[in-house]
Predict the 3D structure of the following.
Amino acid sequence: MEQRGLLARLGSGRRQVDAVQSVLDHLKVLLNTCQGESATVPDYGLMDFSDIVHELPHGIHKIQQAIRNVILKYEPRLKNVSVRYIPDEEPLVLRFEVVARLNDDSRSLVRLRTSMMSGGNFRVD
């Protein structure tokens, strides 16, 4: 039986929320995995940024590009990905905003903030 009206819209809204949450969960794993940690996919995850941190503020562009490229490669549910650096007063934290569209019929906008902490780990909000 086909759902119509309010129930159909509520059901599709729930699927969309689930899809966004699934993407966010995957991005948490993806951004906190260093390249080489996966035996089957050696370039899964981000490169080690320890050398780039010494190039700051010029290295910020390299980090932005790395985040964007890894998302485009390993999160096919997103498209039109942009990564923007967000200056912060705390010198040991680099903040970025990721904006993308879901690659489905809804093409919903996904916006999240991520912070690279002093140990190289990413927090995804």
